[in-house]
Design brief:
147 residues; Rrf2 family transcriptional regulator; WH_DNA-bd_sf; Tscrpt_reg_Rrf2; mainly alpha; Arc Repressor Mutant, subunit A; WH-like_DNA-bd_sf; DNA-binding transcription factor activity
């Protein structure tokens, strides 16, 4: 459902939210090693999040990435929209155009009605769930969660 790029972005924001508090910066190599994401690929992901002000980016020997917003203000949808866009919420699941038609003579997508409900639930979840909430839920679980 989400691209690997988007999953990496979410994991990176969670990691930085936990480890880069109070203006602290973390170098890309450390983030890359900790999350096992190739450094050049991670750099592109983090820069796209920094351009949208979710993260901060500082160059130089003491540079790195930090949080641009409080984790309680960043929703999953913020990240999904930046990385993957909203296609999964706006376009047909199987690529039919138009997916749904007001013209009764024209057939609608065969999965439109069923997927529409699921799509709405996913949209609402992503829109309502913050990185701060995810971190709290991770901290409250007895299970070990690897980012």
């Amino acid at each position: 459902m989400l691209s690997n790029t988007c999953k990496y972005a979410i994991r990176s924001v969670i990691y930085l939210s936990i480890n880069a508090k109070e203006g602290k910066k973390i170098g890309i190599k450390k983030i890359s090693e900790e999350l096992e994401i190739p450094t050049p690929f991670l750099g592109k992901i983090l820069q796209s999040l920094a351009r949208q002000k979710l993260l901060t980016s500082t160059k130089g020997p003491h540079g790195g990435f930090g949080m641009g917003k409080d984790p309680s203000e960043i929703t999953l949808m913020n990240i999904v929209e930046i990385v993957d866009g909203l296609d999964m919420f706006e376009n047909c699941l199987i690529g039919i155009r138009p997916c749904k038609s007001d013209n009764k003579a024209q057939a609608a997508c065969p999965v439109h009605n069923q997927f529409g409900h699921i799509r709405k639930q996913i949209y609402d979840l992503f829109k309502g769930k913050t990185i701060g909430q995810l971190i709290t839920e991770m901290e409250n679980t007895n299970e070990y969660i690897t980012l």
